[in-house]
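Retry 2 of 3 after timeout on previous attempt. Resubmitting structure tokens to design endpoint.
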């Protein structure tokens, strides 16, 4: 992998840069990458991506040896050296590990968008349980051969990846497929390769498709208990094709009333398109492909869209830290879709999904986790539903600037179902947060014009504005 390709990722989930080696920080980063989705540490490079000329290969080798001595168990690493007129830079590559790694002092760290984060006991146990399941993506597909990969899909990936990077990497097709984990070093097709580029992935991995169902009204059953759907589609093919075909259906089914501005006709949609697409892509790339007999399901009702993917939350991710943390069950699928352009920026999609929903006058996304499924529900904005399932009217939130935190989203969701909320009721929703923080949350919602404060002192309560 070239230096430009590494820098294209940007410092964050899978890249760290150090102008000069720092043994403590290097050890922490090696452990964090191994416990997360893997990554690279660039030594001799500054925050602007320029080679500093301040390190030698000998410096890096000594620092790496010392850092690895602090990792329990030893972290597997690779090594790349780059040279330009300013000097030498070295990339230490850390693959995702199926083992749980810690530092000599006992700390267990993972890589997040904020850097290297230490885990508490509960998250360590959750992460250990996930790692024990192995790395399904790199397993070979029984009976599959190189010819079972679709040349047109591979060509599309290579073209769009080069456009995203701004250059052709000069690799042969098989070299690239091996580098991204679609082929193993022996040239055999992996699960990741079949899912990303297969001609007929569902022949080998039947659970890898998607089912879309459009229900009439707000319930899955119609009169007399009969199936209440008006449309049902089964979507198969390589991962990118499944996403695009499902997206085409959703664009049709989510279309609202058209608005004419001057001579231009604008199609409006009943849900924010970014939020819908993000939920769709996440469902396809984060599902547990080991679970057979179930596919990703899109269930559309008059008042909501439900996106359900087999398998609970991975690693140390819980409903409480879902917005702030990132861990991929299938890092090769995630990286493939990122380089393909289906994922805009790693680790930030949930944040923006929430913002788009609330800014558009809708409730925040609802997340439901179980051992065998994770479901995202996107509801239409504060809708009142009639007895026949039709929408009577919608109330939208006023425009606001800035971001809402997940506690504030929880309060707005509560207010959709209840007339008002008090400070005590808010504390019941967020029991582990200090009263002062919650008071500031509510004051911020008032300032943004989303809620109105009524009463004073102990009689204070809040309502949607």
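Retry 2 succeeded. Sequence:
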């Amino acid at each position: 992998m070239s230096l430009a390709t590494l820098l294209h990722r940007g410092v964050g989930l899978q890249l760290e840069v150090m102008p000069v080696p720092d043994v403590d920080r290097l050890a922490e980063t090696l452990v964090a990458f191994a416990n997360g989705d893997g990554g690279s540490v660039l030594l001799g490079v500054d925050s602007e991506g320029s080679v500093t000329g301040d390190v030698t290969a000998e410096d890096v080798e000594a620092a790496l040896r010392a850092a690895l001595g602090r990792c329990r168990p030893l972290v597997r690493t690779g090594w790349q050296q780059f040279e330009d007129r300013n000097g030498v830079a070295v990339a230490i590559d850390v693959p995702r590990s199926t083992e749980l790694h810690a530092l000599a002092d006992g700390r267990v760290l993972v890589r997040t968008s904020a850097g290297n984060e230490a885990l508490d006991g509960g998250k360590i146990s959750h992460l250990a349980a996930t790692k024990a399941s192995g790395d399904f993506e790199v397993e070979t597909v029984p009976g599959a051969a190189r010819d079972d990969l679709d040349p047109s899909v591979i060509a599309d990936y290579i073209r769009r990846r080069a456009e995203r990077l701004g250059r052709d990497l000069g690799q042969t097709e098989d070299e690239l497929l091996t580098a991204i984990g679609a082929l193993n070093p022996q040239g055999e097709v992996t699960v990741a390769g079949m899912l990303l580029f297969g001609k007929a992935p569902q022949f080998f991995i039947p659970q890898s498709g998607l089912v879309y169902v459009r229900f009439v009204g707000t319930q899955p059953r119609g009169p007399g208990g009969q199936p209440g759907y008006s449309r049902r589609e089964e979507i198969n093919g390589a991962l990118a094709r499944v996403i695009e075909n499902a997206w085409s259906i959703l664009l049709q089914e989510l279309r609202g009333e058209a608005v004419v501005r001057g001579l231009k006709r604008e199609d409006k949609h009943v849900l924010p398109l970014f939020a819908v697409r993000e939920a769709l892509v996440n469902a396809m790339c984060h599902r547990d492909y080991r679970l057979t007999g179930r596919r990703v399901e899109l269930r559309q009702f008059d008042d909501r869209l439900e996106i359900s993917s087999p398998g609970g939350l991975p690693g140390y991710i819980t409903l409480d830290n879902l917005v702030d943390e990132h861990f991929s069950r299938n890092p090769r699928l995630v990286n493939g879709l990122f380089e393909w352009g289906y994922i805009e920026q790693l680790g930030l999609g949930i944040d923006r999904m929430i913002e788009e929903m609330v800014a558009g006058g809708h409730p925040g996304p609802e997340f439901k986790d179980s051992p065998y499924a994770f479901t995202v529900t996107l509801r239409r904005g504060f809708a009142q539903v009639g007895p026949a399932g039709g929408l009577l009217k919608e109330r939208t939130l006023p425009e606001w600037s800035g971001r809402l935190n997940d506690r504030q989203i929880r309060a707005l969701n509560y207010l959709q179902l209840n007339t008002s909320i008090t400070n005590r009721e808010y504390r019941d929703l967020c029991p582990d947060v200090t009263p002062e923080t919650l008071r500031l949350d509510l004051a911020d919602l008032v300032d943004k014009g989303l809620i109105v404060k009524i009463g004073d002192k102990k009689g204070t309560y809040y309502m949607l504005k």
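Attempt log closed. Residues 146-204 form one domain.
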